[in-house]
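Action item from last week, closing it out:
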Amino acid sequence: MERSLLIRGLVIAVVVALAALNAYPPGETINLGLDLQGGMHLVLRVKTDDAIDAEVENTIDGLTQELEDREIEGFEVEHDRGNSNFAVTGVPSTEYDSLEDDYVERYLQGWEMSRSGDRLRFGLTNSGEKEIRQIAVNQARETIRNRIDAFGVSEPVIHDEGLGSERIVVQLPGVDDPERVKKVIQNTAFLELRLSVEGIQSGDTEQQVIDQFPGGVPDDIEVMVEEIRDQDTKRKLGERWWALERKRVITGRELKTAQVTTDEFQAPAVLFLLTREGGRKFGDITSASIGRGLSIVLDGKVMSVATIQSRITDRGQITGNFTVQEVQDLVTVLRSGALPAGLTILEERTVGPSLGRDSIEKGERAGLFGGLLVVLAMLIVYKLTGINAVGALTLNIVLVFGALAAFGATLTLPGIAGIVLTIGMAVDANVLVFERIREELRAGRTVKSSIASGFEKALSSILDANFTTFIAAIFLFMFGTGPIRGFAVTLSVGIFASVFTAVFCSRWLFDLLYARRQRVEKMSI
């Protein structure tokens, strides 16, 4: 018996010591959520239509390249921007079957091809469109997470609202510059390198450029704007418009990395490096385009235009009268990848640190007041035996905070409510045991026999009650958001701590008290 007591005592001591070490000091080891620390709460919507448009354009580019590789001449692509369908004319009928079998079925997953006379129609299937939209949301979520991590926000909460939803919830505790964070998050950072149209001059207005095309701007040409800023004040001075080919020489998908640098005037700039395949592709195009203008386009705006003097391979520079902070933020978003679609802010809330501190103080008062009432109730109802429950309850709270610190969980206001609820559940387990012991004593059994029987008979009820509550906590965590998840985490941790302290630790305390006493006449319960 003494050996069993010693082993169980050592187990309890080790567990409690580890929990106490992890939890101390609580102000530094426990991460506080948005509602306690203050910060930002954003609900964003992913413009998945942008992802559909990009998929259609990429499919058209790939199909065009395939037809050119097959040496098919005179074909035309008909596509209305914003439409997920397009048509191709001028493809010989002898190529239909091989094109469908060798290219469409192999490379165009989620697309279907149909024939109408001499026209080939291509369209996204419903399942293909749903998949693209969901992938766009997933990519946006991970891109936002990468940007926030690079930004240095501790313990952010970033998640979508479930399958099929275009909404992403972002909670950023401790943020002191909301506007800068919003700009970093929303920046799509879609990098493109495009060739300027030969023979067309830039203009101070869009119309000046359009007027240089007698029959109107062709479909494969796009007129884009460049903002002219003062070198020193960064104030916008005007605009310059350029005619660029829609076909992209290089995009951000070929980007390997980016870093802060300076240009020839020692102004902040961004140096970008391309992947091996991107560098090869860039080298081939620039070597064939010496003397032409090359524009660096970021998020639909021309950042800089330079004349290709020689073959360029794996690197380039983005300039644009940036401030140091703008360059740092741009490097952050380029490194974290381009967003697959634009974002709009549906909801924005800012929680001040003073409100968070007030919530903490109220939570502490609630926990302390509730705990004192529980202690008084146990001592009044169960007399000296209630001290056992109080000791187990104290260990329970230490274990909960130790586990939260060890798992890196974030404590929220509902999380504090979960801890208070855990206190009640821990005492509930002791109540079940103590009432069973009372029943055994009334039946005339000895004190030691009543204690053993009380724990044995109450165990199934304790496990049943805690297991069903744990199932509810799992569902809260799976389908809840933000603070609700915080409540589920603390509740789950509290359940395991309650069972451990109410069954294992409390029984050990009884055995330790009565182990060396041969005969026990009565107990204060």
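Closing note: The chain has a mean pLDDT of 80.
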